[in-house]
Amino acid sequence: MCCALILIGSIRIVSTYPVFGQTYDEPGHIGAGMEWLQKGEYTFAVMTPPLARILPAIGLYAVGIRLPEDLDLEGRAYPKWISWQDTHLAKTFNAGNEVLHSGGAYDRNLALARLGVLPFFIVATLFVWIWSRELYGDGTAIIATALFSSLPPVLAHSGLATADMALACTFFVSLYFFVKWLPHPTLKNGFWLGLATAMAFLSKMSAFVLLPATFFVILVFFLFSKTQSSRHESTVMKRAVVGSLALIMATCFFFVWAGYRFSFGPVLDQKDAPQERIDAKFAPGSVANNAARLLLETPLPAPELIKGIKLLRFYNAKGRWSNLLGEFKKTGWWYFFIVAIGAKTPIPFLLFSIIGGVMMTFDCWRYRGIQSFALILALATILAITAQSKVTYGLRHVLAVYPIMAIISASAIFKLWQTARYTRQVRAALVLLCAWFFTGSMIAHPDYLAYFNEIAGDHPAAFLAENDLDWGQDLKRLSIELEALKVKKVWVALNSSAFLERLLPGDVKYLEPNVHKSGWIAISAWRKVYGSNQQDPNDGYVWLESYQPVRKIGKSIYLYHIEGPKIDNQ
Prior knowledge:
Layout: H1 2-14, H2 26-39, H3 51-62, H4 87-100, H5 106-115, H6 118-136, H7 138-148, H8 152-158, H9 164-181, H10 187-201, H11 207-225, H12 231-259, E1 264-265, H13 274-281, H14 287-297, E2 300-301, H15 303-318, E3 322-324, E4 327-329, H16 336-344, H17 347-367, H18 370-386, H19 401-417, H20 423-444, H21 475-484, E5 489-493, H22 500-503, E6 507-510, E7 519-524, H23 525-530, E8 551-553, E9 557-562
Parallel strand pairs: 5-6, 5-7
Antiparallel strand pairs: 1-2, 3-4, 7-9, 8-9
Helix pairs in contact: 1-6, 2-3, 2-4, 3-5, 6-7, 6-9, 6-19, 7-19, 9-10, 9-11, 10-12, 11-18, 13-14, 17-18, 17-19, 18-19
């Protein structure tokens, strides 16, 4: 049954490949993965670790695609429609776009890249089955696996060549092995925990915060709840724990370093002018100056990892503009991800999760069990940690909650089905809610990325205008529509990192904010909210509200045809 559910989910995911064009982040990940494979180095946008970039690039590399050696990636300017005008990222996105267009096989190349993320969906679904089966038996395992493999956010990000599903998978697998290791700290369990943790660290930088915090909370609860052992057993246990911990750290370090190709070097390169920067901060010849030079110039394992952490800290401290419930803010909201989960998760699934969470908590205080309550603790820790974030890119940052919530929901369904009181009424309600969930999941196909539940209604942008609605995914649909309409010239304002002049027919022009144009105009939902760019949100396209779009392309692009004089042809 588990294999059948995985197969059905995989077919649903793969069937979205021909529908959607590249999303904003995909070329960046693909370019970095190709650099790792082809050049044996990792310098492209190092704030994301390499694992979830290598796998999407493997298929492309296997069919002979390579980065052009003579391509001036850094010297090429971003097109005006790129919302993130950052020279540090320019070469990464340019490289990825060149790879996607290699050999004139754009659709095939994009599909090959996305296939590299499918194993994370398969592994995550498999471990949902394994863990729920160990906790509650076959019945709950079937329900949990069916729920998880039908969730629109999971299906959406499992079909994109990005890092979010990789973290959701590896975080959950690491959590499983940690909970298994706690009462049985054997070398075998320690090795698997070390390997799984390394894979999580190689998926996204946020794992360096989420995993230790989650492990700590669960460990405290475990130490508080476990019964006292005899002196002899305690001594034996301590020896086992010390040996297993050493193996965990060694295994984790080895595989993380292997992920960075066993690189070794200083954190700052000479092009970063480390000596000048140190002299500007500390007096030349001082103890502090010499110590800083020694620290920054001493070769270390995987210096790219340290650079990535520093870069991510910089962006988080800097903050970024986000939109939630119609409000702009640069430092985020503590409740951003709670609202995102509430608006983009099927309502029946939310209800099951709440009921299951209450039941699990009650059972914990009765039986003092760590196995199931660890799921509640992990879920609470993820939400508590991400509530502090100033960078709120969307629901994808907390995708790791879904395998946890799937088991919690399934346990509630199975227990309620077996309840002795009000059996008929309870079972009827469960059947209706499950039918609502699975029917809604099927109706959402293939637009899983832009899925919103009934709470958001017909105006999801009023809740979230991030990549949860518009991540550039409808670009291919726009191209098909423009070809059908035989459009020769189109003004665009899209949330895309693609080479639009290669993907859209006719003459493609960037629609500057606050500049009225006539003719065909395509604007995406993200641009309507943010205006020209995310660095400085504005209402540069509000003038379009006076017109009615002639088409809505997919879920995120509005196509206008405005009659009027030809203002210019520039």
